[in-house]
Structures are given as structure tokens and as C-alpha cells.
Design a protein that fits this description.
Length: 301
């Protein structure tokens, strides 16, 4: 169950309040079933002035039946300035912290492991990002973002002995930069591109495994006729290390999709995933899907 409410005190100030409850239960073969209850309450202050200055500050309180009470917070800010007659420049930043309790699946996996595994505790994380955006009325935009994140007591799977879940002693870190571009080619075409450089580090000062050091995504949107949208999306991952610290092969995957609106509220869609039938692995020894096609329809009312 979840409730979210928003109170607008003035044109510049608003307050968001809410809460949620969740009950989880896992059936265990030849053992006692596990269940867990969690309660959360949150509030956020929102401030905006003259469509140029924006600020939010939020807090969240969680009470987990197994892992106790936790308080998380997040703040964001943005400042927009005109940049020419048809453009604008946005400076933005955000920072926050959070926690993640071990899932019941992770808990039961460790309890049922052939080799005794230590009890897991919750992860805690903190991070921030700062960014610069430029956009024009024509739809052209460019964004550059720097981000950093750290995770304490990170829960990771034992990829060497395949026994269960382990807990890193210390902080794992991730930092990097991301460049986003959106370029309208004409009234019927647009190109979006994202490139990410991500540097990672475990608590033992080693690169984190299965984390792409370089990633890119290029999307081409086509609008040949009214009500029809075609999308070609190509993603590429590289600079990935396996559990033995050996580099894995880079790969790229092309997905194609189409959506056609028959009448307002009713559309049909189709997509082809891995259209070039690329053979690739995100985890060595575990193959991914070859070419696959889907067709469906969607209603909204």
C-alpha cells in the first residue's frame, strides 16, 4: 500500500508527504517460511521561483522488521539562465543517501548454502552528481554530468565458489562522467546519444567486476506518418572485467520497435530485440537471448 499527497502552499512552495507499507513472504522447502514487514514515511519540500530557481529537500524514514530504523535524505537544486534568444543553460546538482536491506532471497540462499555463510546486514550508500545542460527551443540539447557514489557493506554474489552472498568489508565506489545529446534531424527524425565513462573500485582497491567501464547508447526516432513511431536503438558495452579480472569481449546490440496509434487510447506495437542476432555474454558462461520478436496491443482509458 502506498499513499502520496501534494499540498501547494503558494506558486513557489509545495509539500509532498506520503507513506508505504510492504509485506514479503518466502516459502522455504524443508524449512521455516520467512516473512518481513517494512513501513516507510516520507516528506519533500519543493521550491521554485520564476521558472529559473528550483530546490527540493526530502527525508524518508524506514522501519524494517529485521534491520531496524533508517533515515535517508536527498536534496536537489537547479538554476536556469537564458543563453541567446532561443536557448537556455541549466546548472543542476543533487546529493543523497539511502539503505538497502538484504532481500529474503539473499537471506534464504545463505541459510541454505552447503558451506555455512555469514549473516548479511544492510547496505548503506551515498552519492552526488553535478550537471550542466544546454537546450534550445528547436529540441536540440546537450548535457554533461559528473557523478560519484559509494556503497558500504555491499552485498555481492560469490562468483568464484558459487556458495551464496558475501558482504564487502569497507566501501565500494563508482565515479564517472556522462554526455547526452539530442539532435532533431527534421520534423520526422531525431537522434539521441548517451556516452558514459564509469570508474569503479571495490573495498580492496580493485575494479568492480561486470561493471562496464565504457557504455554508449544511440537511438534514432522516425516519424514517417502521423500516429507511427519507429525506433532503432543500438547499445554498446566495453571495458568489462570478469570475476578472474580478465577482460570480457565488448558487444553491441540493436533493437528495433514500432508503435502505431489506431485511435486515442488504443495502439499496436511490435519490436525485434537483438535484431542482428549478436552472440554475446554479460556474465561469462551465461548466454543471452538471440534474435526475438514481439507483437502486442495496448489500451488506456
Amino acid at each position: 500500500m502506498e499513499y502520496v499527497g501534494r499540498v501547494k502552499a503558494s506558486e513557489s512552495v509545495a509539500l509532498v508527504v506520503g507513506g508505504d507499507t510492504e509485506m514479503e513472504r518466502v516459502q522455504v522447502v524443508d524449512g521455516d517460511d520467512l516473512s518481513r514487514y517494512q513501513l516507510g514515511m516520507f516528506g519533500e519540500f519543493q521550491f521554485g521561483l520564476d521558472d529559473r530557481i528550483f530546490f527540493t529537500g526530502g527525508v524518508r524514514y524506514d522501519e524494517n522488521e529485521d534491520f531496524g530504523e533508517h533515515l535517508s535524505a536527498r536534496v536537489t537544486s537547479a538554476y536556469i539562465v537564458p543563453a541567446g534568444p532561443e536557448g537556455a543553460l541549466k546548472l543542476r546538482a543533487s546529493a543523497g543517501n539511502g539503505f538497502r536491506a538484504p532481500s529474503l532471497y539473499e537471506v534464504t540462499t545463505n541459510r541454505n548454502a552447503v558451506v555455512p555463510m555469514a549473516d548479511l546486514i544492510e547496505e548503506s550508500s551515498s552519492g552526488y552528481d553535478i550537471g550542466l545542460e544546454y537546450y534550445r527551443d528547436s529540441g536540440l540539447s546537450a548535457q554533461l554530468t559528473w557523478f560519484e557514489q559509494s556503497i558500504e557493506d555491499e552485498i555481492i554474489y560469490d562468483m568464484q565458489n558459487w556458495t551464496g552472498y558475501l558482504q564487502a568489508d569497507g566501501r565500494s565506489r563508482s565515479k564517472g562522467a556522462e554526455l547526452q545529446l539530442s539532435v532533431p534531424m527534421s520534423r520526422w527524425a531525431q537522434v539521441d546519444a548517451v556516452f558514459t565513462r564509469n570508474l569503479t573500485q571495490t573495498a580492496l582497491d580493485l575494479p568492480r567486476v561486470h561493471r562496464p567501464g565504457k557504455a554508449a547508447n544511440v537511438s534514432l526516432y522516425l516519424y514517417p506518418v502521423e500516429s507511427l513511431v519507429l525506433l532503432l536503438n543500438n547499445r554498446w558495452d566495453g571495458d568489462v572485467l570478469d570475476v578472474d579480472r580478465q577482460p570480457m569481449d565488448s558487444y553491441q546490440v540493436l533493437d528495433i520497435s514500432a508503435t502505431y496509434t489506431l485511435v486515442p487510447g488504443w495502439e499496436v506495437f511490435g519490436r525485434v530485440e537483438n535484431a542482428l542476432d549478436e552472440e554475446y555474454q554479460e556474465v561469462r558462461g551465461y548466454y543471452t537471448s538471440r534474435r526475438a520478436a514481439y507483437l502486442g496491443t495496448r489500451f488506456s482509458f
